Amino acid sequence: MAFILRRVSVTRAGKKIVRDRPFAGDSIRIGRDGGNDIHLEDLAVNPHHATLTSPDGRRVLVTASEGLGFDFNGRSTETAEFDSASGGELRFGGHRLTVQREGAAIILLVERTEELSQSAKDVDEIRAFSLRNLLPGRRISAWGFAALMLFAFLIAPIWTWYSYAGSDERPAGFHADSSWSSGPLSNAHASLKDDCQSCHVEPFVAVTDASCVNCHTGEHKKMSAAHANASTATLIAARAPPGTGERALAGFAAAFNRPEARCVECHTEHEGAGRMAPTPQQFCADCHDGMAGRIKTNLGDAADFGVDHPQFRPLVRPAPGAKLVRASLDTTPRDISGMKFPHDDHMDAKGGVARMAASFGGRYDFGRAGLQCKDCHSVDAGGVAFKPVDMEADCAMCHSLAFEQVGGVTRTLRHGEPAQVIADLTAYYRSTPPTRPLQLGGMARRRPGQYAEGAVYNIYFSEVAVRPARADQAIAAVFSKGGACYDCHTIYAPSSGSNWRVMPVKQTDRYFSKGWFDHAAHEETKCADCHTEARGSKLASDLLIPDVKQCRDCHVGETGAQLASIRVDDPVKSSCAMCHEYHMDGGRPWTPKPVKKRGDVTAVTAIPRRALYTDHFGSGDNRGTGG
Amino acid sequence: MALGTRLIRRRTRAAAVQTGRVRQSAHEGFLSYAGFRWAKISGGLMLLVILSYALIDVSPRHNGGSWYGYTLGTIGAALILWLTALGVRKRKMTSGAWSLKAWTSAHVYLGLSLIVIGTWHTGFQLGWNVHTLAWALMMIVILSGLFGIFVYATMPQALAANREQMTQMQMLEAIRAYDRQLHVAAQPLPPAISAGVQASLEQDPFAGSVASRFTARYSGCATAAARAALAGVPDAARVTDLLDQKSAALARLRGHLRIRAILEVWLYIHVPMTFALIAALSAHIISVFFYW
User: Fold this and answer.
1) For chain A, is the Cβ count within 10 Å smaller at the N or the C terminus?
2) How far is A138 from chain B (nearest CA, A)?
3) Cβ of residue A177 closer than 8 Å to a chain B Cβ
4) Residue A71 and residue A208 share a domain
5) Are residues A105 and A151 in the same domain?
6) Confidence band of A618 (pLDDT split at 50, 70, 90)
7) Do residues A112 and A57 both lie within one domain?
C-alpha cells in the first residue's frame, strides 16, 4: 500500500505537467505548516488542518484536526470515510484534493483551484471601473420606467374609462384616471372629482353643454333670456374678431373637434379648489366692446364700467297710464306716476313742512332738522330696494284725512276709494247738524232784546234745513285745488256718467330690468349723495335716479380704469358681474363671497337689518346696532 | 429647429472655406462652440417666452390650455424629441455639415431653454397629476444634464490628481501585487490572525454598496479590519506593513471609483428619465385629447 502525491501544474503555453511523489506509511498530514506531508500554501488552511489515513489500503479516513472542517464531495464536514476505489474529492481552502485508486496505490491529486486573492481574478475593465455592476442598466431602466409610465398614466386611466363607460355614476374610491385631472375642481363640483365621466363623457369629444344642463336645468333658458333670446350664431357673431393667437386656437379647436360657445369656455374648471372663479369683465367685453358694429342691436357698447359704459336707461312712464319704456338718463326723461310731490318743499329744513314735522315731537320722531328720506321711504325686507310709498304708513302722519271726531275716535276719509269718500261726506252732512250757536242753548243768561236771538235762530235753522245739500260743496272742495285729494293726486272732475275720479298711482318698483342695484350695499352712503336732484325737485315726475357719472364717483373699472375727468377718492373696482348677470334670474347677480376667517366671529345673533336702516339711513351717522 | 439647422449649415459652409488657411490653435469645447452661438439662441428664446408670456393677455389666465399654452407645449414636445435624438446622432458617423460638437452644443443650450418653455407652458399650475409628472421628469432630465456638464467641467482635474499618472489597471495591479506578498508573508501566522489577512485577500476590491462607491467610505473593509487586528501582534511587522500599503492602494482605487461614479451617475438618471419623460409626455398629450 502506498500513497502517491500527484501535483499538476500548467505551463504558460497551457501544457500540463504531472509530478508524482510516493509516500510510505498509512497516514498523511495535510496543512499550511511546512512540516506536513501535503503542504498547502493557503491561508485558508490551518497549519495542521487534517489527517488522511488508510489502514487497510482501500478505505480512506479523513479527520480534521484543528476544528476547521473541509468539503467532501461538495459537503462541509469534519470527518469523511470512503472507499478509495470509488474515489472522493476533498477541498481545503482554495485547494482540491482528489483521491482515487490506481492499482494498489492511492493517488492524491493536489490542485490549486482558486486564485490566491479575489483581486487576482480577471476583471472586465469597462464594467468593473464603472457603475454598471452597481446600478441597473440604463437601457433596462429606460424601458422599465417608460413602461411604468405608460401603464400607470395611460393604460390604467383608459381602462378605468372603459370600465365605467355608459354607467351613470362611478363608485367612490380611487380611479386611475384621476391622475389626468389638471387641477382640483371648484367647491361646487368637488363631489365629481372621482367621476371624470360625469363631464368627460365620450373620449376625444370636448365636454358638451349637455353635461352641464343635466344638472343645471334651465340655465340655457336664463342665459338666452338675458341676451334677448339671441341664437348661438348671433352670440358667436357678437364676439370680437379674434387675434392671431385666437384664430390659431380656433383653427386648432376646429381641427380637433372642439366646438365654440360652450358653457365651459367661460366656466373653466380644474382651476383649483375654492369657489368657482368670478366671471372677469373681459368675458363680457369680448362681445359687448364694439358689438354694435358687428350685429344689429339696440344695446350700447360697453367694455369697462370706469371708462366705457353707456348711460343708464331706466324704465319710465312717459305719459299718465302709459306703458313703461326705456329712456336714457341723458334725455332727462319724465316718469309720470300720477302723484304730485314736491321733494323740495318736503326736504327744506326751514320750510313749513319742517316746522310742522317738528311740532309732532313726541308723536312722530321726525327730529328737528325737518323731514328725512327715511321718514317717507322704507326699505323692503331684503334691504335691496324700497317699498312703494304707502299713504297710510308714509304720508298720513301729516296728510291727515280726518274729518270728524266721535267720542274720541277720529273718523277719516277712506284713502284710495273716492266713491266711499263721496258717500261718507254725504252721510256726514246728512246726519250732523251745523254747530249749534251758544245763544240757542241751555240755561245761559240772556241779554235783553229778543230780536238778536230770533236772528240767530233763523240763521241756524235755515242752515240746518240746507245742511245735506252742503255735502256737494264739501266734496267738490276735497277734490279741487286746496282739497285733501287734489294736493297729492291728479283729479278728473265729474263729467257725464262719472263722478270725481283720481288717476291711479303707478310706482315703478324696479327701474333697471337688466341691471341690479343693491341699496343694502350702499348703506354707508347718504341718500342725497347719489340722489342729488331730490332736494331741488319740484315735480313728482322728476326722475331722481343717479346717472352713470354719479356711480363713477366711486365705481371704477375692474382693473381700476377711470375717466380722467373724475376724481375718485376711494375707488371700488367693479366688474360687469357686480350689476349684470349672464344667467339672469331677477335676483342678485351671483358673485363669489369673500371667504371669512372663522376666528373673526365668535357668535352670530339676529341681524337687525331694518333697525340698521331706520337708525341712520339718510342721516349718515354711525352704523346702527350690530355688534 | 429648422432655423437651427439652417444656422448650422450656413456656419459650416463658412468654416469650410476658411479651414484651408486658418488652423484652430486652441481646443474649443462644445460649451463655447462657435462663440456661444447656441447659448445666445437659447437665451434669446427664453427671453422671448418670458416677455411674450408677460405681454400677451390670455383670458381667463395663463395655462397649458390657452392658445399660447398650446404653442409652448408643441414647441416643448418637439424640442424634447429632438434633444433625445442626440442619443441616435452620437452613434452615427456623419461628416461635414452635421458636426457632433455643434449638435451637442445645441443640445445643451436648447435643453436649458426647455426649463423656461416647459415651466411657462404650465402657467405655473402644478399639481399631483400626469401633467406635472411630465414637467417634473423634464426638470429631472434637465437638471441631471446640468449636473453632468458641471462634473465634466470640474471633476477631471480631481481624477487626474488622484491617479498620479497611473492607469486604472495599474491601480488594480498594485493591489494584486500586495495580495501576493501578503499571501506569502502571512503563511507562518497562526490561524486566528491569518484569517483576517485571508479575508482581506478574499474581498473584491470593487465590492461595496452604491453609497460606498459615491463616498469612498467602506465600513466593511476587510483590509482595514485585518490591519486593526494585527496592531500590537509581535512578529507581524512585515504583514502589517503590507496591509498599510494595500490600504493606500485601495484608497487610491476607491477614490478613482468615486470620481468616476460621480462623473457617470448623471447618465444613469438622464437617459432612463428621458424615456420615462417621453412616455409620461405621451400620456399627458393623449390624456388632454382623451378628456378633451
Assistant:
1) C
2) 6
3) yes
4) no
5) no
6) very low
7) yes
Most confident of A285-289, A355-359, A572-576, B128-132: B128-132
CA B183 to chain centre: 40
CB proximity A271 to B under 8 Å: yes
> A72 and A163 share a domain?
no
Cα separation, A102 vs B268, in Å, equals 59
Residue B155 near residue B264, CB atoms below 8 Å: no
**Interfacial A residues in 2-61 facing B (CB < 8 Å):** 32, 41, 43-44, 46-47
Q: For residue A83, what is the domain's CATH number?
A: 2.60.200.20
Q: By the 8 A CB rule, do A353 and A398 touch?
A: yes
Q: State the smallest CA–CA distance between residue A36 and chain B in angstroms.
A: 13
Answer yes or no: do A284 and A174 share one domain: yes
Domain boundary among A277, A293, A309: A293
In chain A, what residues touch B202 (CB-CB under 8 Å)? 117-118
Whether complex ipTM tops 0.95: no
> For residue A143, what is the nearest residue in chain B, using CA coordinates?
B275
For A202, the grid coordinates are 365620450
* Residue A331 belongs to a domain: no
A89 located within any domain = yes
Domain presence at residue A586 = no
Question: B128-161 pLDDT, tens per residue?
Answer: 999 999 999 999 999 999 999 999 999 999 999 9
Q: Which residues of B touch A181 (CB under 8 A)?
A: 127, 129
**Are residue A430 and residue A490 in the same domain, yes or no?**
yes
Segments forming the whole domain that contains residue A9: 2-120
Q: Are residues A95 and A159 in the same domain?
A: no
CA atoms of A422 and A428, how far apart (whole Å): 10
Q: What pTM was computed for the model? A: 0.68
DSSP A594: P
Distance CA A276, CA A264 (A): 12
